[in-house]
Sequence to fold (259 residues):
Amino acid sequence: DSRGAGSAQFSRCHPRPVIFDGVVSPAEQIASMAKVLLEEGKVDEALKELERAMQRMSTAPAMLLVYAEAAKRANRWDAARIVYQRVTSWYEQQGVNDEMRRDAMEGLAEVQVRLKRYEDAVKGFAWLVDRWPEKKWYRYRHGIALGLAGRYEASLEVLLKLQADQPGLAALCTKVGFAYLQLKRDREARQYFNEGLMLDPHDAYALFYLAKLHALKGRPDLAENYYHRLLEVDDSEDLAAELARTLGKTRPDRQEELR
Fold:
């Protein structure tokens, strides 16, 4: 789960301020206070406190990383990107070790995905995978970024290796199926979409793509079946609307379909 991973990253990235001889730097105090505000869901307040502090004192990386996290939560993706790049550049200039650079690199890569800067995201996740190959989340996000960048063969290679190490994940099966679909290997795509549905009968994307595949193969009856199943999945309205257009329906009437 990306939100869970992000939360873990945030906690790891921002420990309690380090105290030397009983003294905590002002920047560390602000960073710690802002982190508490974020944990309480007070994103705007955290941003205001951080921006006020950044105008009157030097900005330590710890403060900047909390600011980047707050900017992400406020959907200020460009601001988050600029701050993460500032931190990563500073770390590189200072020659800090990879472990210290890790969270800024991960945050930047995720932001690049949101901004559709997919090749930049590929580079970021490749950097992370190269240094922490045992982290399956980095390998997964690397594979996804490759696919988003249109590098489907490379994406498929990464995702298939990951699936061999981590079988039984519906979302991963669906991503593999999508990569095959982009390569026009429909048989393998159907295989993985069906495997995904065996693991999770409510996988909206597997239902969506199987319906489209059957519609293109001249099996509207099977496509309709997957369409009806998709209508029963929570938060699938956008996919259902797109599928309805593909199937030539005027609009997906959810209430009517569920009667």
Remarks:
- Confidence is low (pLDDT under 50) at residues 1-23, 255-259.
